[in-house]
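COURSE: Structural Biology Practicum
ASSIGNMENT: Worksheet 4, Part C
STUDENT ID: 0417
INSTRUCTIONS: Below are two proteins. For each, the amino acid sequence is given first, followed by its structure token string. Answer the questions at the end about the second protein only.

PROTEIN I
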Amino acid sequence: MTSESRTVVITGAGTGVGEACARQQAALGHNVVLIGCRRAPLEALAEEVGGLVLSGDAASSTEWKAFCERILETYGRLDSLICSAGGHDLGAATDMSEDDWQKAMRLNLDTAFYSARACLPHLIKQQGSIVMLGSLASFQAGGDICGYTTAKHAIVGLTRSLARDYGPKGVRVNCVCPGWIRTPMADEEMQPLMSHYNESLDDAYARVTQHVPLRRAASAEEIADVCAFLISPTSAIITGSMIMADGGSHIVDMPTLAFEGL
């Protein structure tokens, strides 16, 4: 690839949606920058699709300074940022320690903020774009996931603030909000259901999506498709938007479900 190819930076690139985005962008002929905390999966991915591996903490401004220097040295430009880094947590407010709270904010909000802040000067030069990974939890509250829910709600505010401030400078910022996605992290979340109901992984996913209009979870590749659209010229007029990629979960009126089938 040449320095004239578009350069797409992806945090959380080692697994799940981040990995799917990296594979897709590389297949499209773009330079991909693979950022994550664990080097091994990043290097394994780079062996398959190419790209620049940068292992470190996306919530560190110090590390981002070094990241940006390496990106510019390698590719000469930075066109798009996909903030896919994140992580789940369990616990209601009174069950969480201060460390639990700080970890939830760091994994899900700080990674997005520090990534965007570091990349913005370079994105302004290229009239580039940012995609944040929100969640259905950016608008609704699940039980016993206080930190995750709060951080994902905050991602909406961050998206809107950045879109408002940097739209006049030519940078677009949008947020993709999935529901259930079949990823290794979600597979782990299915384990209690599988154990309780003595059912398969497929059965567990069917159970958690039984009221979703499309009746299934998304694939990581489907969410990557939405991210690809939002960083492409095809979406040139879209900024500050929350794209619900949840199979229709957000339109379901939960209080009326008890009346179905009467």
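PROTEIN II
(use this one for the questions)
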Amino acid sequence: MRSVGLVLHPQRDSAEAVNAVLGWAARNGAAVYGIEDEIARLNCAATGVTAQEIARRAELLVSLGGDGTMLRAMRLADGQHSPVLGVNLGKLGFLAEVDVPDLPAALSAIDARDFTIEPRLAVDTVVAGRQVAAFNDIAVVRVPGDSTAAVAVQVGGQPFVSYAADAVIVATPTGSTAYSFSAGGPIVSPAVEALLVTPAAPHSAYNRGVVLSVADPVSLQILAGSGQLAVEVDGQVSGYVTAGDVLDITARPGAAQVVRLGRTTFYQRARRKLRIADSAELGPAARSQDLATDVLPNLPR
């Protein structure tokens, strides 16, 4: 591995992690790149490049932060060859693969090709004339003080279901553990190629979410009587829609690649980080045994 790119959280202290990457790179003859505005505050030895350049210059992107930083790194890597390694500097870090103490060993494993790649699906739409992509979700969300979100979901050009809700979320499997999960949607493995449509606080007679094929184009039509809705792309407001507007959403499998080192599975991470518990109706003998990552918390996550 000849080059590594750094993607930093805008506020968290990442100096220890950056120094770990720089030290590994110096020992192994690799170049380190960072986005100019981000590395300026650290006064480190990484070479400054633009956000548009970093995924083209680096063979690996290292995300130093939480899930938001990881999603941004995936957007930077979108359509490029560079996989993304997540390093957890936050509290949850669901998408991250390692903690800071494990970073040099992880880089050595990647250099030795001892890792696997997990393709991640993106969803695309156009908001206010601008193409946007999300790796978690695209949601139309009721603006506080305005009317409910009245949204018709069309699949393959045909009406399927309409919701009156606080929000309607179109999520990827990656995003199934984010907003969609908090709205009652299912947990979906990133190995599954599907889209989830989940209403948040629905007022409709039909209040269930649906799972759709990525081969079917999805449209969200804002119905008469709906209030102005914010369009959130991976949690950030990208624009607004009103009655009569239509958001066409398409799935793009394999838009980015996430590094996995085989130390935990998706299901182990989901059980631990989402605090999934067995039913209280089951006796202790019938409940699942604690997972290795719960019993041995020092293992890399």
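ANSWER KEY EXCERPT:
Q1: Helices lie at 15-28, 36-39, 51-57, 67-77, 103-111, 179-182, 266-273, 292-295.
Q2: The longest strand covers residues 246-260.
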